[in-house]
Amino acid sequence: MSAWRIFAGIRTVLCYNRRMNIMITDTGTTPVRPNRTDIVLRDGENMEMCRGCAGCWTRTPGVCVIPDRLRHFGALLSHCDNLIIVSRCVSGSVSPFVMRVLERARPFLLPQTDRAGRHLPRYAHRMVLSVYFYGEEDAEGQACAREMTAALCRELHARTGSVIFLRDAAEIGGC
Amino acid sequence: MRAALVMTAADAPRGTARVLGRKLKAVAADWTFEEICPAQEADRHALARRIGSCDALILLCPTAFGSVSSGTLRFLSDMQYVLRKDLPFAAVVYAEGKNEGACRGALRILKYFAEKNRLRYRGGIGFGEAGLIPLFARFRSGPFRSFRKACVMLKKAVEAPSAPAECYADVHVPGAVCAIVLDRLYRAAASRSGVRPRQMKEQDKAAHYL
Question: What is the pTM of this model?
Answer without folding.
Answer: 0.77
